[in-house]
Amino acid sequence: MDCIFCGLIREGTASWVERGPVACAFAPLNPLAPGHTLVVPTLHYADVFEIPPEVLAVTTALVQRVAEAARTALNASGVNILSANGPGSQQSVPHLHFHVVPRWVDDGISTWPTGRSAHRVTGDPGARLADALASGRHHGS
Question: What CA–CA distance (Å, rounded) separates 56 from 22?
Fold first, then answer.
């Protein structure tokens, strides 16, 4: 496997914010904002569909800690937490990762989608999701 994030973790060559046994955080090569950080599980999991819930919990706890550090250390007034998962999501690296992007009022960027999906599903999507969760037709049940 030739995963860029696994290589950074293995070689220790990232610009580290935090290194842990289960999850780690580092600066991306092209940050969107000062303090933009990537948080990843230390072991390779392609996406949110593959990661065990206990590893996801540790990883998202680090996301929360990085977000709080951005607020206190960088005086950010908010953060965007972004993650793409699976082929239809524009996931650029097939290793689960969360972008924590510090934000300030009037900082000049937008990380919110500007359009709406043209995809349509039959029936009420929320009801279909609720049915899938109730019947256990999802990973993790």
Answer: 9
